[in-house]
Structures are given as C-alpha cells and as structure tokens.
Recover the amino acids of this structure.
C-alpha cells in the first residue's frame, strides 16, 4: 500500500523532462498538475520558459493535458492563453480525470506519464491508475490552504522512503 505513494522518478523541475527522453520511453502524452508543478500556485500565467517547454513537447508530438484539483476559473485562465487542454476539479487522486485525459488524448496508459508535485494527489492518482509517475520539487515554497495539510503527510512519507532506502533523491536538494 505505501508503495502507491512512491513515484517512478523524481526531478527538480519539469524542465529536466525532455521530449527526447520521453520518446525514448515510448511516452506520447503527459498528464500534468498545474499549481506548484508548472508554476507557482499563485501565478496567473505561464512563464516564457514554461511556454517554450510546452512548445518543445508539442513540436515532438507529445500531447499535454493539465489535470488540476483547482477550480475552472483558475485552470481555464492559465490554460486557454497557451492552448493547453485541461480538466479542472479533477478530484485527484480519484481516477476519473486521469482516465478522461487518456481518452481525450487518445493514448494508452503505457504511453502516458503523470507529472506533479504532490505524493497525495498526483503520484498516488497516477500509481492507482497504473501510470508512470514523475514527482517534481514544488515550484514555490508556499502552498494553498488545503495543500499545507498534504505536505505534512508527504514529508513523513518521504522520510520513511529515505530511511528504507527506497529513495535517494533527497540528497539533490
């Protein structure tokens, strides 16, 4: 059960994830969280660097869908200007939004990766749906109200994984 919170991979930021690497793994689609994964939770728009990253995925034929637990206004305001499909009120870690994103992108599970900054929503949801999961370091040091509670549990899980030698990435920080 505890292994459901263990990501397949860990990176400092989405910018370490390249189209070439994804294609080498047979990945054709990304399901990504928004807040504290792509940009700070309180940033309204994509940064130029993020737009360039998203365009590099698109140019290599890798589809991207934002799947967020946030509300429609927040996710739509971020996604529409950059033309990225999205699902809001996703209720992660529940599986419905993950399955919908896979169906909408017309890809298979083994061609899809989930990228997110939270073990309790992104990684757990991806793992429950048998998807490859990549945990990123949160973009901001602060979080929205509800995320603060998840971070307490997440910190304990990460410490447990480290004590059991299930992770080595903490040394990167």
């Amino acid at each position: 059960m505890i292994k459901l919170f263990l990501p397949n991979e860990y990176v400092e930021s989405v910018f370490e994830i390249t189209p070439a690497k994804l294609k080498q793994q047979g990945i054709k689609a990304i399901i990504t969280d928004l807040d504290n994964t792509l940009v700070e939770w309180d940033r309204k728009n994509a940064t130029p660097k993020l737009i360039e990253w998203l365009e590099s995925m698109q140019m290599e034929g890798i589809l991207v869908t934002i799947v967020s637990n946030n509300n429609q206004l927040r996710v739509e305001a971020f996604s529409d200007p950059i033309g990225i499909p999205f699902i809001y009120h996703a209720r992660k870690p529940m599986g419905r939004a993950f399955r919908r994103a896979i169906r909408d992108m017309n890809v298979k599970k083994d061609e899809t990766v989930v990228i997110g900054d939270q073990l309790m929503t992104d990684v757990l949801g991806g793992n429950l749906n048998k998807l490859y999961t990549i945990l990123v370091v949160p973009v901001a040091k602060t979080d929205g109200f509800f995320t603060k509670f998840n971070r307490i549990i997440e910190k304990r899980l990460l410490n447990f994984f480290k004590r059991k030698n299930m992770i080595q990435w903490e040394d990167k920080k």
The helical segments are 19-24, 48-59, 72-79, 96-105, 119-128, 145-163. The CA atoms of residues 41 and 142 lie 8 Å apart.
